Structure formats: C-alpha cells, structure tokens
Amino acid sequence: xxxxxxxxTSFVSQVERGVANPTxxxxxxxxxxxxxxxxxxxxxEAADGTAEVVRVDNDIAVLRAGQRRRIVYxxxxxxxxxxxxxxxxxxxxxxVEAAPGASxxxxxxxxxxxxxxxxxxxxxxxxxxxxxxxxxPRDSIYFSSxxxxxxxxxxSEPLVAIWIITPPTF
Length: 170
Fold this sequence. Notes:
Elements: H1 2-5, H2 9-16, H3 24-33, H4 38-44, E1 53-57, E2 60-63, E3 70-72, E4 78-82, E5 92-98, E6 114-121, E7 124-128, E8 131-135, E9 140-144, E10 149-152, E11 159-166
Antiparallel strand pairs: 1-2, 3-4, 4-5, 5-11, 6-9, 6-11, 7-8, 7-10
C-alpha cells in the first residue's frame, strides 16, 4: 500500500496508529491504494451516524441540515458535507468549511470533468493552471478539472463554499 500510494511504510504505520495525519492529497493516495476513495468516507458517515435522505420520488431527494454525510479530514480543519444524495449521480455537490490556513494540499489536483464553486463566506485563494484569483463572498469560479488546480484559505475568517463537480470524483 505504501509503495502504491508513494509514501513510506513507516508513514503508513504512523497514520494507522494516529501518530501522523496525512494531507488531503496523501489521504486520497492511501485510499486509492486500497481501492477506495474519499467519497466512500462520505457515503458511510453522517454527522450523527446516520444520513437521512427523504425520497419524494425516484428523481427527488431532500437532505436535511445536520443529517447529511460529513467528513472532517484528519489533521486538517476542512470539513465537507455531501449535499447531493449519493456519489452515484451525475454530479456531486459539496458544502465546504475550512479554517484560516487550510488548503487542498501541497500540490495541484487534476481529473476528468468540470467544476464550479461559489464562496458563501470568507476568502478562497484559487489557482487553476497559471491563473490565480481571490474569491470572496458570492464570487464563483468554473473550470475544466483536467487543468491543475488547488486552493487555500489565506483569509482571517473561516471559509464556507459550495462546490459542484461532474462527474463525481470523491
């Protein structure tokens, strides 16, 4: 697993024992090495241990605040809640919360698809390819996910944003 994830076996051991906390990008690599994904953590965990999805019919689902699937990344101050009913749909919608200084990891991410995000509160420094921008409340960004991208909360307030990704990548 360590070799496939590109980390040392001692680091994996430290993560298993709770001595070290992986970055978001390392967590993704570790989960991919065992045939899983960060999304599987969202699929299995809710804020109170259960996720209530109220189905109105096969095409409509209501997810109540406080009862959505939520993940807090180990060793970070980033929390994501899945706003879409599952990762088996055509897009994933995520509520993002990040404390000042939190970021998407040490290196840019790339994958198939498209993304769109809007900042609700706080400030998000975003880099897509060679383009850098600062997004504030009500600012949005849309881009092709195959372009290397990363973000950081360099502001002094917590960041809250809504993120839409198609197809789901978690």
